[in-house]
Records
---
Amino acid sequence: EVVLTQSPATLSLSPGDRATLSCRASQSVSIYLAWYQQKPGQAPRLLIYDASNRAAGIPARFRGSGSGTDFTLTISSLEPEDFAVYYCQQRDAWPPYTYTFGQGTKLEIK
Amino acid sequence: EVQLVESGGGLVQPGGSLRLSCAASGFIFSDYSMIWVRQAPGKGPEWVSYISSTSTTIYYADSVRGRFTISRDNAKNSLYLQMDSLRVEDTAVYYCVRGDDIAAIHFDYWGQGTLVTVSS
């Protein structure tokens, strides 16, 4: 099973700052990594898929990068609504498929 | 508009059973793989089970294999999760989720979730 490790666990920043979140996989997942945003009381929302593609309706300030084992989610200039928990996720390359999530990074207002 | 609406959650004793349902609308349900994901209180999401568009391929997480059964009815645009031999550690919000394309590598739409509480 692929283990996804996110860092940092908590990131304290101010609106307008640049945020950089990391996700490291225990083995290569090629580009098949996604990022989700979750706000309290809501379901996760897909932000980025295939490492760098923004999902429908996601603002351009969200950028995903990386391949293999190291991935980054960058939010160029934080808006108040961006403070939330972010998860990375992958699916095994070969069947039987399993899906795993990282433990999350909480982005909080400084 | 894609909508996924879960139902069937509630309080159940350890060893009990529960059946979750998910009503899908706004897309051609029979074209998509579907997934159940759960999230325990204060924890991150955990994948539970996957079913292909025609039900020919099914996968389970090790933590639920042999106890949970996923199924779907494409004529009714519905997804199900039969949960037997429930344990305290199965307590979570259960989300019905759509696979993002034919490969279903990622999850593009999520329901609002239904809470399952396993407690005596």
---
Amino acid sequence: DAGITQSPRHKVTETGTPVTLRCHQTENHRYMYWYRQDPGHGLRLIHYSYGVKDTDKGEVSDGYSVSRSKTEDFLLTLESATSSQTSVYFCAITTGDTYTYNEQFFGPGTRLTVL
Amino acid sequence: EDQVTQSPEALRLQEGESSSLNCSYTVSGLRGLFWYRQDPGKGPEFLFTLYSAGEEKEKERLKATLTKKESFLHITAPKPEDSATYLCAVQKDSSYKLIFGSGTRLLVRP
């Protein structure tokens, strides 16, 4: 258990509504990641963070923004949710101080449905 | 293009029937290959990291091996509790990113 919690665990929202998902870790790890998981696509990286206020885009970042104002929290925001963003969202951390060998540990996930 | 392909997509085994899952990859410069187990409704659970061709790792009934182009996850005498989706991911040199395959869904029947 890497001490990762995600909230909410389930959410149903309507198209055009802003949504924020929270990832919280208890062990002050530097690197945090947001993924989405969809059938047939596996896990795809949305955004990642390498420190407080240090974030960068992954392969499917369009329509998403992130913020990290504290080491322990990494927020994912959908500014205006669309049905294509219906997915399961996972947060992950790396326990090392560098990404040299990037063993990632995942949270329990948030299932988001956009109607 | 960097790619990770897992096969088969789904596998049904009888309890005790050993088999292997495949993960083939095309990346320029492999730093590490990772195996995860994912149960329904849960996040992926880390199993192994393999760093170089010829390396092997074992955990209970699972053994992972690595060549220059693919990795195998061997399951010996599986039990129903081994039923899960198994994910493979690779990390390239000079990158923090993991590239995931789509997974193999394993069902072990008693």
---
Amino acid sequence: GIQVEQSPPDLILQEGANSTLRCNFSDSVNNLQWFHQNPWGQLINLFYIPSGTKQNGRLSATTVATERYSLLYISSSQTTDSGVYFCAVERNTGKLIFGQGTTLQVKP
Amino acid sequence: DSGVTQTPKHLITATGQRVTLRCSPRSGDLSVYWYQQSLDQGLQFLIQYYNGEERAKGNILERFSAQQFPDLHSELNLSSLELGDSALYFCASSSTGTDTQYFGPGTRLTVL
């Protein structure tokens, strides 16, 4: 099956810093989503981005499908950005395969 | 708010018991998915339904079963519960079955 690897596993930032999270996947996919799991456990959709670049406020994402990776950029980080960021992919099966996540802590 | 609702939010029960988790998809979504998040296994796909029919199955235990009803809500039944079944169970929905999945708030199951 498809393997999904996220890096780094953990990240600690000072408020206001920028960061880049990476997601590598082992096969072609037709769906790639980024999620933020907040400290209360909620999984929040950030992007649906099987290819190309999207931006939403301080967050943006780029997926290079031909090279099988996706990047999530967080600019001017805030303490509310803390939590776990997941990348998940799907290949015509309906089931999302999740990476192990990147745990982000933003310090005031 | 994703528009996907799950009940109950928390459930505490004993080993050997049976529980039912309920999910209502976003309005208009035909597909429902169930996922399990545990500390050791991470987030894992369990099962997908599309318009009442089972479409895909993951590593779902035989003690677990699900169904999607004509009004499109879904239930996940967990029986003969074991300590290792303690986890956060998410329901997600999508409109076509291969597009963006929106996740509910989850049901936290604790088996004592």
